Structures are given as structure tokens and as C-alpha cells.
From TrEMBL:
This is C4-dicarboxylate-binding protein. Coiled coil: none annotated. It comes from the Bacteria. Pfam families: DctP (PF03480). GO terms for molecular function: carbohydrate binding. One of its GO terms (biological process) is transmembrane transport. The keyword Protein transport does not apply. Keywords: Signal. GO terms for cellular component: outer membrane-bounded periplasmic space.
Length: 320
């Protein structure tokens, strides 16, 4: 009886500690605004972690780049000043070059192919590689596909881009893509694009459906060709400083919560895309679906300029 009583008291102490101990607060960074799919997914991940650890960990999400730009938050995550970070693959390339293969144009045939790659051995290998630079990659989030929209005519084949002035991000790969397809790349601040399209300074631009809708670019460039030339995913990172402090059980909880949040984020993103495509068509935009294989063949010379990605490219293209 005495042993049973002692066991009961011990259990009460354990439960009391889990219920009343102050939670460990973890900082999570995202540069998007409240309500954006990635922000909501991070919050969802945080709730799962809090529940599954009996309140030991509580995640506070800081949206709208409150903790800095993506480059800055990556640096802080490596140092352990930020615990969890949601960033695009693009700025990660400077820290871990192999993951840059995911930023190449037309590397994925379509959305289904992308997820087979990211959720398969290749995607896991790239996430694992991030540990070399002090980061732990938990999962990928969807960021949609960037496609061309133009003022005077749709882009249905590579030849349609010849001679056109297309706004691009200040990104070497995107600049090379335009040149390879025969267009003239025009690096330009995002805020200037609407007026540039309206006044004829540029003939077109490229972005994903939600951005095309939210910027009202469909009003001045109504031809939207869904070629999906880049499908650059997002990544959820954990600082290795934090990761090494977690128990094996906690690591499993964090990974499971991240994967669940990835599914939630996909659902939210698809909703955003469907809404955006519906709204732009209601606003007068015309949607086109060009043959992507024509563009993939046309950009082969660009791939040849990145020999470091050759093995990964071949493996990605072999995924069925």
C-alpha cells in the first residue's frame, strides 16, 4: 500500500509539473503577413507541438518580417536566436548551394511531379544536407508556380517571347532564363510593375496567381499563360542549436507536426490559387495552358551552365 501511495504521489508531481510549469517559448519567423498560408500553417504546427508535448513548448509566430528579411532570419536561425524559420528555397542557396537545383526553371513537369520529388528521397536528402550549415529542414511548403502574363498576346510557345521585354526579379537564373528564351529581361522593383505594364515600358511579367490577382496586374496584362516555369518551394527550418537539445521523442513530434502543417498549407494554398484564378477571369483576364515540354527543351542550354546540378537534375527528371 505504501509503495502504491508513493507511486500515486510521484505521478501527481509529474502531472503538476507538466500542467503548471512555464512553457518554453520558441520564436518562429515568417516574412508573409497574417492570414497567408505559410503563416497559418506555422501556427497550426505550433498548436500540434504544444498539445503533443503537454504544453512544454509554445511557438510564437512573428509574421510580416518582424524578425528580419529571409536572409537575416536564416542567419539568426543558424545562431539559435530564432528557433523555427519559414523561408523560400531561394535565399537558402547562399548557405547551402545544392538546394539551388530546386530554383531552376522547368525542373518540375507539374505540381504532382514536384511533390513526388520533394516528398521522396531527393527532397529528404536536400533537407538533411542543411544540417551541415546549422539548420534542420523539417518539410516543404507550397509557394505555387510562376507563369508569364503579357499585355498584347499570350505566350504559348518559347518563340512567343522573342523580343519581348519581361520584368524579372533581380535573380541571375531568371535573367538567364529570359535570355535563353529570346526575351529581354528587365530587372525591376515589384511596386513599379503595374505602371510599367500600363505605359509599355515592359511587355509582360511573371508571377503566381495570387500575386497576379492582388497586384491587379491582370488589369493591364490580361494574357496569363500557365507555363509554371519555376516552382520554388518554401522550407520550414529548425535551428540545430534547438534540435540538439530535443529528446528523440520531441524530435519526432516536431517532424510529425511539420509534416501535418505542410498538408494544411497545401490545402490553404490551393484555395488561394483557385480564388485568384477565378477573380482574374472575372476581371477580364484570359487563361492559357501552353505545352510545357516545348519550354523544357528550349532551356536545356541554361541547364548546361550549372554543371554542379547535373546529377540532381537527372535524378529529378527520372522521377515518374
Amino acid at each position: 500500500m505504501r509503495k502504491l501511495l508513493m507511486l500515486f504521489v510521484t505521478l501527481l508531481v509529474i502531472v503538476s509539473i507538466s500542467l503548471f510549469a512555464d512553457p518554453i517559448i520558441l520564436k518562429a519567423a515568417d516574412d508573409h503577413a497574417e492570414g497567408y498560408p505559410t503563416v497559418e500553417a506555422l501556427k497550426f504546427m505550433g498548436k500540434i507541438i504544444e498539445i503533443m508535448t503537454n504544453g512544454k513548448y509554445k511557438i510564437e509566430v512573428y509574421p510580416s518580417a518582424q524578425l528580419g528579411s529571409e536572409k537575416e532570419t536564416i542567419e539568426q536561425t543558424i545562431l539559435g536566436a530564432i528557433d523555427i524559420d519559414r523561408v523560400s528555397v531561394s535565399p537558402l542557396v547562399a548557405f547551402y548551394p545544392p538546394i539551388g537545383v530546386l530554383t531552376l526553371p522547368y525542373v518540375f513537369r507539374d505540381q504532382d511531379h514536384m511533390w513526388k520529388v520533394l516528398e521522396g528521397p531527393i527532397g529528404e536528402e536536400l533537407l538533411k544536407g542543411l544540417e551541415k550549415v546549422g539548420l534542420v529542414g523539417l518539410c516543404y511548403y507550397d509557394a505555387g508556380a510562376r507563369s508569364f502574363y503579357t499585355v498584347k498576346k499570350p505566350i504559348l510557345k518559347p518563340e512567343d517571347l522573342k523580343g519581348l521585354k519581361i520584368r524579372v526579379q533581380k535573380n541571375p537564373v531568371m535573367i538567364e532564363l529570359m535570355k535563353t528564351l529570346g526575351a529581354s529581361p528587365v530587372p525591376m522593383a515589384f511596386e513599379e510593375v503595374y505602371t510599367a505594364l500600363q505605359t509599355g515600358v515592359i511587355d509582360g511579367a511573371e508571377n503566381n496567381p495570387p500575386s497576379y490577382y492582388e497586384t491587379r496586374h491582370f488589369e493591364v496584362a490580361p494574357y496569363y499563360s500557365l507555363d509554371g516555369h519555376t516552382r520554388i518551394p518554401e522550407v520550414v527550418l529548425v535551428s540545430k542549436v534547438l534540435w540538439d537539445k530535443l529528446t528523440d521523442e520531441e524530435k519526432l513530434i516536431f517532424k510529425t507536426a511539420a509534416l501535418a502543417s505542410a498538408e494544411y498549407e497545401k490545402y490553404l494554398w490551393n484555395q488561394w490559387e483557385e480564388m485568384a484564378l477565378k477573380k482574374v477571369q472575372e476581371g477580364g483576364a484570359k487563361i492559357f495552358h501552353p505545352d510545357v515540354t516545348l519550354f523544357q527543351k528550349a532551356v536545356q542550354p541554361l541547364y548546361d551552365r550549372y554543371p554542379a546540378y547535373k546529377e540532381f537534375l537527372e535524378r529529378i527528371q527520372a522521377v515518374k
